[in-house]
Amino acid sequence: MSCSNGSTARWRACFPTQGDQCAWSTSSDESAGNIVGDVVRVLPSGRRFTVQGTDTLLDSALQSGITLEHGCANGSCGLCKARLIEGDIERVRFHDHVLPEREKSRGVFLLCSNTAHGDVVVEAQIAGEPDDLPRQRIKVKVQKIEEFDDVTLLSLRTPRSQVLHYLSGQSITLELADGSAQNVPLASCPCDGLNLELHLGAGTFAQKLTRARRGSRLVIDGPHGNFVLDESTPGPQWFFAEQHGFGPIKGLIEHLINLELKYPVRLLRTTPHNTPPYAHNLCRTWADALDDFRYEWSQQTTELTTPKIDAWSNTDSPPSVAYICGSQPFVSATSTKLSMTHPQLAVATLVI
C-alpha cells in the first residue's frame, strides 16, 4: 500500500516466532534505491537467493534459478502470494490484485510487487512440477536467427509485461504468421523469461523461420513437457545430446549452474561429422570455468556412447540422474547402455 505522503511503504514482520500472530509497522525513511544484495530465505524449502537493487522478490528468485509459484507476474492474478516471516519488505510495483485484510494481517504479500529491505525470511511454494505453471500465450519478437550446420538458433524476446514462466527443459509451440506451428524445446534458462532461445533441426519449418526478419512478431504457446531438471536428486548429473538435442540440455545445465549446485557434471555431445558441434566453445567454457565439469564430443557411430560411458563409470562416482535428448535411435541406444551399467539410475529422455 502507498503512504499518504506518496512514498513507498515499508513493512516489517515482528515476533516471527509467534506463528501467524505478526505485528506490523510502516516507515518511509529510506528509499528503495538503497536496497542492495539482500538475502532471502524461503520456507519450507530452505532455498536462498539474493535481491539486487529494487528487483522484486519474484524476479530475483527466477534470476537465481528458483521458480517460485506465480502466474501473471504483473500484480493481477495473486498466484505469487507469500507470507513474510521475518524482516522488512518494500513495495516497488503497483498491483491490481486486492489482498483481504485478514491475509495482510498475517503478513501475506505479492512476490511480484515487493522487494527486500535487508535480509528476510518468507514462506512461499516452489513450482517443482510442470503442472504448477499456467499455460501462456505470448506474442514475441524475433531478436536473432543464426544457422550452424543443420541447426537454426532462434532468439526471441517477450514483452516485459508478459515474460514466459517455465521450467528448464520444457517446450513451447512456436506459431508462424502463415499458421504453421511446431513444438520446440526451450534452450534457455528460466531465470530469464524475457529472452528465449530455441534450437531447431533442419526441415521445412526451419526454412520458413529463416525468412523471418529481426523484429518480426511470432506467437508462442506453452510451456509443455515433463523433461525438466530434478532439483531434489543430489549427486553427479550426466547429460547426453545429439545434434540440436543440445538445446534443452543447454537449458538444463544453465539452470543447474544458476542454482550453484556442487555436483559433478558430465556432458557428452555427438555430431554426424568429424568437426566440433555448434556452441562447442560454450561447452569448453563451462568445462574450464566450473569445478568437476567434464565435456566431450564425438562423431556419431553405432557404439558411440559405449566407450565414453565406460570411461566415466570407471573413474567417476555413479550418477544420480541422466538426461538424454536426440533422435529415437540415439535416445534408445544411450538409455539401454545406461540401464546395463547403472541399473538404479534415474533417466529422463526427450526425443526430438
Task: Describe the protein's architecture and organization.
This protein is of the alpha/beta class and 352 residues long. The chain contains seven helices and 18 strands. Strands 1, 2, 3, 4, 5, 6 and 7 form a seven-stranded mixed sheet that branches. A six-stranded antiparallel sheet has the order 11-10-13-8-9-12. A five-stranded parallel sheet has the order 16-15-14-17-18, with helices on both faces. A hairpin with a 5-residue loop joins β10 and β11. α6 runs parallel beside α7. The radius of gyration is 22 Å and the shape is globular. The N terminus is likely disordered.
Could you list some keywords that capture this structure?
352 residues, alpha/beta, six-stranded antiparallel β-sheet, 7 helices, 19% helix, globular, disordered N terminus
What's the arrangement of secondary structure elements?
Blueprint: E1 10-14, E2 23-27, E3 38-43, E4 48-51, H1 57-63, E5 81-91, H2 101-105, E6 108-110, E7 114-123, E8 136-148, E9 151-157, E10 171-175, E11 181-185, E12 195-201, H3 204-210, E13 217-224, E14 237-242, H4 246-259, E15 265-271, H5 280-289, E16 293-299, H6 305-315, E17 321-326, H7 328-341, E18 346-351
Parallel strand pairs: 3-7, 14-15, 14-17, 15-16, 17-18
Antiparallel strand pairs: 1-2, 1-5, 3-4, 5-6, 5-7, 8-9, 8-13, 9-12, 10-11, 10-13
Strand content: 25-35%
User: What spatial form do the alpha-carbon principal axes imply?
Assistant: globular
Amino- and carboxy-terminal Cα gap: 48 Å
Sheet bearing the most strands, described?
7 strands, mixed
Mean pLDDT: 82
